[in-house]
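haha ok so turns out i had the wrong file open the whole time. this is the CORRECT one, sorry everyone. sequence first:
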Amino acid sequence: MERKYMDRLVGKYCKIVTKEPGEQRVSVVTGILEEIDHKDGFVLIDSSQGLGVLRINTIVAVKPGSKRNIEKKKFQDDDEAMVGIGTLIVFIAMVLVAAVAASVIIQTSEKLQQRAYAVGSQTTQEVSSGMKIVGITGYTDVAKTKIETLAISVQPRAGSFDIDLNDTNIYIQLDKMTVISLDTTSEDVINGSVSTEGVFQTLNHSNLTSTEFGIIALRDTDSSITSTYGMSTKDLAMIVINLSAVLEDTAGLITGAEIIGKIVPEIGSFGTFVINSPNSYEHRIVDLW
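then structure:
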């Protein structure tokens, strides 16, 4: 190949066909023709495999290649690499999203489990606990015209949790509703046994106001009623109410009157009662329940 033709191809993309002496097959090298050394008979070419040297006497033909096609091929190779990186990024993002979602689901399930346990425990307490009224007795004035003091015997329902009398309220309704709670400030309105003179002489119930009740522990083997105001299923207590203070308009429950009441503990079901006062009182002690 003449020198003047080859020099015009320096710096261009070329397809160079070579054939070694004694070889039957030709080889093709594609790349940039960097330099031609006619003196020593070599050609320097920059191909995809790097810089290389070809002997001029082995070159059969040189065909200028399309720069656009070569660049396109390179760009396609780069695009394939970019697609691989993009796929990796998407995969990592999916793993992170799945991890976050799993964490949220686990935390939510734990909260739901704790909430369900709390609701179940509270529901069990509400259903199984409660106050039961055993009996109600009244004590009239000397003239036997009205009931001045009320004694209500109570105990927890079977299988009930312990009941705190300090957190127990009594609702009494006649012309108005009165809310009564335990008086823990006066020592003479809480007693661990019944006096030999009788139930209504055990406590100084005249000290009880319209919003306070006293306690007599009828059965309290562990002294929980008198010490901590707590009742277990085996305990029995008597709640004493000063009706002359609660029903201040009549200074007590007069004959033929009716009052409605509820004993509401902190947890569990409440006990209800309706008291119908007799038209006359034969004795000062009146059985009302």
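The mean pLDDT is 84.
again sry for the mixup
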